[in-house]
Fold this protein.
Amino acid sequence: MMKAGNIRYIDFHTHNSEGAEDTVSVVNLMAGDDVPADFPANTLFSAGIHPWQLTDDNLSELQTELLLTVAHPHVVMIGEAGFDRMKGAGRETQEKAFMFQASVAAEMDRPMVIHCVKGWEYLLHARREVKPSRPWIIHGFRGGSSLAESLAGEGFWFSLGSKGLNPEVLRTVSHERILLETDDSGESIADVYRLFESVAGYAPDQAERLIRNNFNSLLNYRL
């Protein structure tokens, strides 16, 4: 990893593997993807069984592939794991995949990155059953303040892109549980920070310090 003084931005969830010298990028991998042989020193990875990957007969194969991927030391989080009522396999298969990943995250003592589309009741049920000791972070959250308040009350963290930077949400949830991301938008993480600063009322150095501290707290790092 680069020295803390060189890092301005944390891109918590991205599909862009190129990165930038002033950014720690957490690149998302799906089960079956290989960690690249070469990647920038300030790149980390998450890896998971995405609901969209699932069919009713490939779960066992994906579980094996995921275990191979997460053995890499730069894979620091499990996920995207979650529930999607609009795409992917049926609920039972999604639930089995999710609980498997929750058990892997618990065994490896790692946070979990959550994908959820219209499956919030399933996610809440899973959290209450698992009672995770490390944070579960909902990536790309775009819901309203009532949903955010409910999820925050259950202990979830939030990773927000530009479309999720809702003033009401930012007034509702603790900023100490917020991270920022570009996902697959093609945007610059610097632009997401600038929007966050505008909506939340932070100076640039305040926002950068906040997100860096949150990331350090999440992963027990010292960036």
Q: What stands out?
A: Strands lie at 9-14, 23-30, 43-48, 75-84, 112-117, 136-139, 157-160, 178-180. The radius of gyration is 17 Å.
